[in-house]
User: Which sequence fits this backbone?
């Protein structure tokens, strides 16, 4: 197993290196003079010369790339032009919101999608099956940002005065400023800043609420997360439901399932104990592939729901041409994406010995 | 080689492939998903071609000061006189600039369909060529091409497209280019896999033995046999490409105003969803129907044309 994981890690090194080359190349492909593109009208020849020297742009390209590699390895992703702060600091503060959104979206997709697929397969060609598949087809065809807007309208306006009402915007109720856990735990003096790791953890609002034993805050943070998570999770949900259904249908036709039935096992046991294990293998792969969708979904919906995550920051930076922020965020998201896929691969190898032994043995 | 052999061989191949295609077409005609998809797409193509006839107004003309228009026109709700509304006919209401939303959505069909078809065609051509070269040449060339494809695939597609368009500058053409690049690897991989498996088959070895050059082998023998999965993947890809283009326009990176494009219409009106939901509702439905059409057709084609990809 360890050998299998190491092999996979080794394989991802060239890809990670390629990501760095590509983002570096893209940043150098900005048409015209980067100084004038970034500084705009304020750029005079003198300012630009100074700018190029400070950013090392007067060096030959290979040297620039090596400097870039060194900086990334040291966690230095440059400074954001718009925020006038290091990009890495912004990432630490804003990544948790996106991760919370992504994981809850994925959780929603799996928890609803897998049972839907199982029910559909067990009642093949029933009204429930057809209905689920029509719904799933519509689900994969919807633009996620449109779904987000419609959910915000339905639960924020139409259901406004009913118990179904949900906040359509923000991560917490406006005015709420929860104490970070490291302050409550007395790790730092009141009002002082925590270190990067402490800040990072505290920006997971759900986690922070649990760590500070603040029930009201937990419920508030959860309520604000529902609509964005449903919006981002719907496409993966549809894909997972379809995949579970078709994969389970295939497995239910296999000999060993017939044997299980023949020896008198109840249908419930046959499906849950025997068939589902094998049917869920391809679903694991699909879940891995869906992380890309979740990231795109976050980029497209954070603005709609007023969440200050990585996606919204990225989108806002595009219009203000904050190149180093776009570049830094892209690199880190792509890295995270590769590592997530690696994790899914490993999980797959763990679940299915055929893969592990076939390739890693 | 005797002339008779060649003509026999050609005839054999033609007859074989013809019946295969006929069979595939027959399968397609019996597949409800494919039929539904074809109907939707056929209708959309008609709408796109006949947009000036189907639309009720000029898509970029403001209704302010037009005869018969009264009251506040910006973001006016839908008005259908037949259903009891007093005023001029506007199936989907007016947008923020008092333009007829229905006509904008109708003309938007042209943009979205062309974007979908153009991006996918470009990426199929590029991806297929790269896959062919990689699979046939092997060695270093293959390594370089396929590792490059791995890197492109390592990015979440939309994110890479955003980065590319950020660098190149916003606009529909650059958005097209960005989306095209994100789609190339899947066709390159499909093609390479087909080439690798076909290269070793007897009919290809036989061609080589009678002295056929690599170009002839690639275009006359390998390509026709590898085209089915590409077509299926391409049809499914059109839907995704349309969604991506709408997303880029929604972010302000794709089509620019006043071009009627669905994502762009949504982008203009997203801050008004609480007061004028019709502005958001209709363009989104249009995107969904279009993408649904291509997905249904793609699924149907997968079932009908390619038993290897059949997941049901």
Assistant:
């Amino acid at each position: 197993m360890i050998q299998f994981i190491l092999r996979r890690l080794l394989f991802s090194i060239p890809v990670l290196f390629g990501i760095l080359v590509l983002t570096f190349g893209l940043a150098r492909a900005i048409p015209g003079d980067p100084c004038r593109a970034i500084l705009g009208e304020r750029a005079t020849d003198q300012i630009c010369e100074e700018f190029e020297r400070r950013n090392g742009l007067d060096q030959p390209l290979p040297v620039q790339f090596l400097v870039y590699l060194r900086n990334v390895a040291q966690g230095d992703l440059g400074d954001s032009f718009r925020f006038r702060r290091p990009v890495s600091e912004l990432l630490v503060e804003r990544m948790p919101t996106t991760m919370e959104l992504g994981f809850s979206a994925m959780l929603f997709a799996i928890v609803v999608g897998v049972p839907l697929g199982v029910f559909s397969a067990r009642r093949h060609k029933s009204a429930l099956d057809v209905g689920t598949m029509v719904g799933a087809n519509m689900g994969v065809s919807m633009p996620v940002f449109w779904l987000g807007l419609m959910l915000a309208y339905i639960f924020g306006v139409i259901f406004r005065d009913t118990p179904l009402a949900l906040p359509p915007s923000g991560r917490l109720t406006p005015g709420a400023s929860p104490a970070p856990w490291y302050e409550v735990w007395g790790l730092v003096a009141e009002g002082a800043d925590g270190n990067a790791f402490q800040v990072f953890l505290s920006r997971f609002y759900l986690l922070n609420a649990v760590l500070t034993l603040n029930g009201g805050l937990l419920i508030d943070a959860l309520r604000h997360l529902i609509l964005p998570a449903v919006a981002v999770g719907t496409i993966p949900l549809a894909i997972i439901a379809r995949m579970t259904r078709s994969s389970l249908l295939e497995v239910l036709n296999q000999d060993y399932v017939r044997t299980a039935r023949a020896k008198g096992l109840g249908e419930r046991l046959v499906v849950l104990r025997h068939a589902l294990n094998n049917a869920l293998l391809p679903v694991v792969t699909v879940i891995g592939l869906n992380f890309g969708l979740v990231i795109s979904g976050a980029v497209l919906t954070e603005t709609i729901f007023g969440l200050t995550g990585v996606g919204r920051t990225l989108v806002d930076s595009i219009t203000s041409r904050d190149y180093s922020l776009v570049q830094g965020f892209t690199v880190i998201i792509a890295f995270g994406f590769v590592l997530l896929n690696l994790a899914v691969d490993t999980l797959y190898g763990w679940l299915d010995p055929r893969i592990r032994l076939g390739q890693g043995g | 080689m005797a002339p008779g052999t060649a003509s026999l061989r050609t005839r054999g191949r033609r007859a074989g492939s013809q019946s295969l295609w006929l069979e595939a077409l027959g399968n397609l005609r019996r597949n409800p998903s494919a039929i539904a998809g074809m109907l939707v797409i056929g209708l959309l193509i008609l709408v796109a071609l006949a947009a000036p006839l189907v639309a009720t107004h000029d898509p970029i003309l403001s209704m302010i000061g037009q005869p018969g228009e009264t009251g506040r026109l910006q973001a006016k709700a839908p008005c259908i006189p037949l259903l009891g509304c007093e005023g001029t006919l506007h199936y989907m209401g007016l947008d923020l600039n008092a333009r007829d939303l229905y006509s904008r959505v109708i003309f938007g069909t042209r943009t979205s369909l062309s974007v979908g078809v153009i991006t996918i065609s470009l990426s199929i051509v590029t991806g297929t060529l790269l896959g062919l070269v990689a699979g046939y040449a092997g060695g270093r060339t293959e390594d370089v091409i396929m590792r490059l494809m791995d890197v492109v695939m390592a990015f979440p597609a939309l994110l890479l497209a955003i980065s590319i368009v950020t660098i190149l500058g916003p606009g529909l053409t650059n958005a097209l280019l960005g989306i095209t690049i994100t789609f190339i690897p899947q066709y390159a991989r499909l093609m390479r896999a087909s080439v690798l498996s076909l290269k070793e088959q007897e009919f290809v070895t036989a061609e080589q033995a009678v002295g056929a050059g690599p170009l002839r082998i690639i275009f006359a023998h390998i390509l026709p046999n590898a085209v089915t999965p590409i077509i299926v993947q391409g049809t499914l890809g059109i839907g995704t490409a349309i969604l991506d283009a709408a997303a880029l326009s929604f972010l302000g990176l794709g089509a620019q105003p006043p071009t009627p494009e669905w994502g762009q219409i949504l982008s203009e009106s997203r801050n008004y969803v609480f007061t004028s939901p019709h502005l958001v509702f209709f363009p989104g439905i249009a995107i969904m129907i279009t993408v649904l059409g291509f997905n249904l057709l793609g699924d149907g084609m997968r079932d009908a044309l390619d038993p290897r990809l059949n997941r049901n």
